[in-house]
């Protein structure tokens, strides 16, 4: 640990570790498999980066997001540490060079996506590399009970056979129930149970839920009354822009952030917020992971995420500097119904999975018994349109099929091209007159995609080619030309969406799905949605107590600051005098009448105060149980 402290000071400039970091790092350096549960902002990355610098060989870090990997690598390079992120955006020649450098020991840390573990090129190089540590970031993704299960994470355990059982495995996550904690360790084949968990409770982060029929007005009021920067989470790209506009109109500087924006726009907006040139980032859940801004005072949700895990992680981005911060949820009538429709209606039945499996095979022209082990290029937008299937349902079915081992999806599967018009309608029209191909592409593009001048839209060049009657090559050339002339912004997809079937095509009814396991999975998903609905509607229990209880941690005392606790405190402060005066003026008094007079939703909030007045003999109960003043 002396070396670990020296490295911490040399590269990161810190004199000491945060609570629990030192214990976790010591465990890893002792060669023990280690699971670290640290809340968002708890310094998880240092727990594997410091050991990586202490150990002689290469550390492999499995991470779920390309953007997160790139951010980590850029930071490491800035402080003088050789690191690299290997992912699907690279061409084969560049990838081969990087993997050869990995074998030679040129990098101390190599970040890879879980899908990369299925690559033969990567696996063959791993066997020739001196690996000292395997770190699994966002480890909850390995658990079928986790809120963000990624089937390729299950292949991580296979690395142990390739690198040797003596190489320790480290898993890190910010959110995990007891069930997930056990599943992570079992799935990674821990040699012994070994968990380091910091309390999920953060004394300076206050959670609250406010019920309002005008969320926009309430949002503006919060930022007008409170100081500091913040994040506002919305569930749609369109809403992020609307909210940013509303805040700016009310002199609260804000910028939007979502996956439909160009990488350049996202980077510029994020940089402006990080450097406090704007106060508020209005974002979808695409924003936040890997963002380390310590002085965030407010995280506000206008719509609830589908699970307590996601809410806890997103709200936890506030107050990382240890100062007072707030996580606020705005709720309105009907929100519970919206949550159920949005997150539960898309869960497919087993019969729907079997039916869409059959349609998928017919769409690709695969004969019965054929298709095993062969990758098929796949356009989900074309598939759902031609088969008349709801896109959300198709996504869910594909995830189920991957979970069941029926298919494997390439790591570029979810990538697509994006398009946004930058010029005036007149300039675009003038360009369409220059040649026939430009005219066909522009007219088809405007017919197929709405509001291209407002926001980036997902597109498929193959769709444009089909509708315009020209070749795919010509469509791409026209779009590139229009982009060069600054008439539009065109970002071509670098991924290669493909599906690989594990076995040959079978009849629809013969497709085997473990119904018991699938029913358990769907029940778990439903329970998460119900848990977040309960959180929205519960007005009796402290918010921190509710959240920690979900994660299996018991909080001995209420937080004292959330909306529930403040309501109780206020009631206790005013109620003794108020109750006495009411009873004096209205003898005999019913407790329900007192509660109604005070505007209390719950009669039991008066119980302790009434008990106190009874003990002091200031009031008494008559034979009917009504309250009166003791005249003696």
Structural account:
This protein is of the alpha/beta class and 632 residues long. The protein has 5 domains: 2-197, Rossmann fold (3-Layer(aba) Sandwich), CATH 3.40.50; 205-333 and 529-550, 3-Layer(aba) Sandwich (Rossmann fold); 343-414 and 497-513, Winged helix-like DNA-binding domain superfamily/Winged helix DNA-binding domain (Arc Repressor Mutant, subunit A, Orthogonal Bundle), CATH 1.10.10.10; 417-491, Arc Repressor Mutant, subunit A (Orthogonal Bundle), CATH 1.10.10; 563-629, Orthogonal Bundle (Arc Repressor Mutant, subunit A), CATH 1.10.10. Helices cover 45% and strands 15% of the residues. The strands form 5 sheets. Strands 3-4-2-5-6-1-7 form a 7-stranded parallel beta sheet, with helices on both faces. A 6-stranded parallel beta sheet has the order 8-13-12-9-11-10, with helices on both faces. β5, α7 (158-163) and β6 form a beta-alpha-beta unit.
Fill in the keyword field for this structure.
45% helix, Arc Repressor Mutant, subunit A, Rossmann fold, six-stranded parallel sheet, alpha/beta, seven-stranded parallel sheet, 632 residues
* Average pLDDT figure: 86
Alpha carbon gyration radius: 29 Å
Give me the CATH architecture of the largest domain, please.
3-Layer(aba) Sandwich
Strand order of the largest sheet: 3-4-2-5-6-1-7
Helix content: 40-55%
Classify the fold: give the CATH topology of the largest domain: Rossmann fold
Low-confidence stretches: none
Question: How many distinct helices?
Answer: 25
Strand share of the residues? 5-15%
What does the main sheet amount to?
A: 7 strands, parallel
The assigned structural class equals alpha/beta
Domain tally: 5
């Amino acid at each position: 640990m002396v070396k670990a402290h020296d490295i911490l000071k040399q590269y990161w400039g810190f004199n000491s570790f945060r609570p629990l970091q030192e214990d976790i790092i010591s465990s890893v350096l002792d060669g023990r498999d280690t699971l670290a549960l640290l809340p968002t902002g708890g310094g998880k990355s240092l727990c594997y980066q410091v050991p990586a610098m202490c150990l002689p060989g290469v550390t492999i870090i499995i991470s779920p997001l390309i953007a997160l990997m790139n951010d980590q690598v850029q930071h490491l390079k800035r402080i003088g540490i050789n690191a690299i992120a290997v992912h699907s955006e690279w061409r084969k020649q560049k990838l081969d060079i990087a993997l050869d450098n990995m074998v030679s020991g040129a990098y101390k840390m190599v970040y890879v996506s879980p899908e990369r573990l299925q690559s033969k090129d990567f696996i063959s190089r791993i066997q020739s590399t001196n690996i000292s540590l395997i770190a699994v970031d966002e480890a909850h993704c390995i658990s079928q009970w986790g809120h963000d299960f990624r089937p390729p994470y299950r292949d991580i355990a296979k690395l142990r056979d390739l690198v040797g059982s003596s190489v320790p495995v480290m898993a890190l996550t910010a959110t995990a129930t007891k069930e997930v904690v056990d599943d992570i360790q079992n799935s990674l084949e821990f040699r012994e149970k070994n968990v380091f968990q910091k309390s999920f409770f953060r004394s300076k982060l206050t959670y609250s839920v406010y019920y309002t029929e005008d969320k926009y007005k309430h949002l503006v009021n919060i930022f007008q009354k409170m100081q500091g920067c913040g994040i506002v989470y919305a569930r749609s790209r369109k809403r992020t822009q609307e909210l940013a506009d509303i805040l700016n109109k009310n002199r609260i500087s804000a910028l939007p952030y979502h996956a439909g924006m160009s990488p350049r726009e996202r980077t510029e907006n994020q940089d402006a917020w990080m450097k406090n040139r704007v106060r508020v980032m209005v974002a979808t859940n695409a924003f936040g992971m890997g963002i380390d801004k310590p002085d965030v005072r407010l995280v506000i949700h206008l719509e609830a995420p589908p699970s307590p895990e996601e809410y806890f992680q997103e709200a936890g981005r506030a107050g990382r500097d240890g100062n007072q911060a707030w996580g606020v949820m705005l709720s309105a009538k009907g929100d519970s119904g919206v949550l159920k429709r949005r997150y539960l209606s898309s869960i497919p039945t087993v019969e729907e999975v079997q039916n869409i499996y059959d349609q998928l095979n017919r769409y690709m022209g695969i004969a019965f018994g054929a298709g095993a082990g062969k990758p098929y290029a796949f356009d989900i937008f074309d598939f759902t349109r031609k088969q008349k299937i709801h896109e959300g349902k198709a996504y869910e079915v594909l995830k189920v099929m991957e979970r069941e081992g029926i298919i494997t999806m390439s790591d570029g599967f979810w990538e697509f091209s994006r398009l946004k018009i930058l010029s005036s309608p007149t300039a675009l029209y003038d360009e369409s007159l220059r040649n026939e191909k430009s005219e066909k592409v522009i007219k088809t593009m405007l017919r197929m995609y709405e509001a291209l001048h407002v926001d980036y839209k997902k597109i498929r060049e193959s769709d444009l080619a089909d509708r315009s009657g020209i070749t795919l090559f010509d469509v791409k050339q026209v779009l590139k030309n229009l982009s060069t002339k600054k008439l539009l912004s065109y970002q071509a997809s670098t991924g290669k969406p493909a599906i690989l079937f594990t076995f040959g095509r079978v009849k629809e009814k013969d497709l085997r799905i473990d119904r018991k396991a699938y029913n358990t999975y769907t029940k778990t998903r439903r329970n998460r949605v119900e848990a977040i609905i309960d959180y929205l509607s519960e007005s009796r229990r402290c918010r921190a107590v509710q959240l920690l209880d979900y994660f299996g941690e018991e909080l001995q005392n209420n937080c004292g600051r959330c909306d529930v606790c403040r309501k109780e405190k206020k009631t206790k402060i005013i109620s003794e005098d108020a109750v006495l005066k009411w009873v004096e003026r209205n003898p005999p008094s019913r407790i329900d009448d007192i509660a109604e007079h005070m505007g209390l939703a719950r009669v039991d909030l008066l119980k302790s105060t009434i008990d106190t007045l009874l003990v002091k003999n200031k009031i008494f109960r008559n034979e009917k149980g009504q309250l009166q003043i003791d005249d003696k």
